[in-house]
Amino acid sequence: MADLLLRLANDRRTAGLIRRLGLPTPVRLARVAGGYDAAPLAGRLVVCSAAPGGFAEAALRQAAEDAGAHCVTELSEGQAADALLFDATGCRTPGDLAALHGFFAPKLRRVARNGRVLVVSRDPVTLDDPVAAAVARGIEGFVRALGKEIGRRGATANLARLAQGAESQLAGLVRFCGGPRCTYVSGQVFRLAPAAAPQPGASQLAGKVAVVTGAARGIGAATAQRLAEEGARVVCVDVAAARDALYETAARVGGLPLVLDIAAHDAPSTLAAFLRDKTGGVDVVVHNAGITRDKTLANMKPELWDAVMAVNFAAIAAIDTALLAGKVLHDGGRIVCLSSVSGVAGNFGQTNYATSKAAVIGYVAAQAPLLAPRGISINAVAPGFIETPMTARIPLMTREAGRRLNALSQGGLPRDVAELITFLALPSSAGLSGNTVRVCGLALIGA
Ligand code: NAD
User: Fold match between 22-30+41-192 and 209-439?
Assistant: First the structure.
């Protein structure tokens, strides 16, 4: 369902009227086609600075320059910043936090449309001093509030929470959060741990195999396409009822179709055998298939509860067990699970769905340390309102509320979610595991 307000607010003939009516005026988000190139920040003006006593500024600047950005420490007269990068790892006392105000306040009006902010802090859980830990946690509040202020310009703000020794992991994150692909991810925390990761470049998934469940349409189809654009051979999975669309997606991305109900009792062994025999195993697993069966709890029949739990969570755990057991999922692999903002904040009429999606959040947190010895990372992606057949079925007024109640005043596109999933699937994202990252345009209410 097309977003009429987005169109009218960006049409010169109607934009004034929309403003006078006091309606939201969402900015058309700039998106890039195709895969990463070697210099994704080429032509971008990036301001990079730090609070005194930090340890990440050099890595931050190096990452931006390696990605092709032109880095400065201050803006000259008349310049607008495409991105502001700030190392706040030096902030240990409440007074130190003033460095955030000192850097950002004078520049905020000069952040370009679709601009980016990335702040780096220490990870509070690694700090023994309670005040220093609280200060590090405070920076999260700053980034979330800042994201809500710059969202009206289509700009996004995110936080990298850095364990000591994880500076090299900033290279991939700067390319994503500091560049054009971070369209609908804002106000999010990326916890980075030390890990061996190759320097990011183009075609990072060349020679790799990925599997995407629910790939026939929506977010799954967009993800299959993005992974293929990065060079992966993609196995596309969906149910028999979606066979035609599944074959279309697989053909479009040059991948392999597999008709399979992931909730069937023999689905894990069927998928493992398919991957072992046809592709020699798998490097990236995207658990995207999901269903809703909404009813208030008092009216919810047990079969609605069971169906949602089976597809949205139980199938993920069962498939992972099968793929991990026989090392069908290679060492150094990536698992990305689809959760939902509903799993973070809950949602009326979705006790079944919210339970299953919150379970996914718990699952990635619990699995991450267990998979670390094999170099496998696991993360969850929690979409907010994304324009797909799933959300097109929502009644008009509820749909409008869902679209507007975020800092960007619009729904995301499947491609925006696919960008985040793809970023997490790259070899250069090795330092990220156990995270749940929302892709919600920075929801204004709820979590
Ligand atoms: P969608 O309904 O458009 O597509 C889901 C796909 O999964 C369909 O092709 C469907 O046939 C497939 N599928 C369902 N059950 C399956 C099964 N048992 N086995 C194999 N395939 C199965 O959904 P979408 O909007 O693209 O959502 C994708 C994921 O993102 C889901 O997990 C969903 O819960 C989550 N999500 C979506 C939104 C949103 O706004 N669209 C918001 C939050 C979370």
Answer: yes
What are the structure tokens assigned to 400, written together? 């409008």
Token pair for 326: 């026989």
For residue 163, give Cα distances in angstroms to 126, 160, 366, 404.
Answer: 7, 10, 19, 35
pLDDT digits (tens, 9 = 90+) for 391-423: 888 888 888 888 999 999 999 999 999 999 999
Cβ of 217 closer than 6 Å to ligand 1, yes or no, is yes
391 lines ligand 1 (CB under 6 A): yes
DSSP 3-state assignment of 233?
Answer: strand
Residue of 1, 288, 361, 391 to test ligand 1 pocket, by largest number of atoms within 8 Å of CB? 288
pTM of full prediction above 0.90: yes
Strands (E), 11-155: 45-50, 70-72, 81-87, 111-122
Rounded to 5 degrees, what are φ and ψ at 135?
-65, -45
Atom of ligand 1 nearest to the CA of 385: 40
Rounded to whole angstroms, the Cα distance separating 45 from 55 reads 23
- Whether 247 is catalytic is no
Segments making up each domain of the chain, as ranges: 22-30+41-192, 209-439
Which ligand 1 atom sits closest to the C-alpha of 220?
26
CA distances from 288 to 7, 53, 417, 426 (A): 30, 42, 11, 17
| CATH node for 209-439 | 3.40.50.720
pLDDT in tens, 303-362: 999 999 999 999 999 999 999 998 999 999 999 999 999 999 999 999 999 999 999 999
Q: Supply the DSSP string of 190-216, one letter for each residue.
A: EEE-----PPP-S-TTTT-EEEEESTT
Task: Just give the CATH number of 22-30+41-192.
Answer: 3.40.50.720
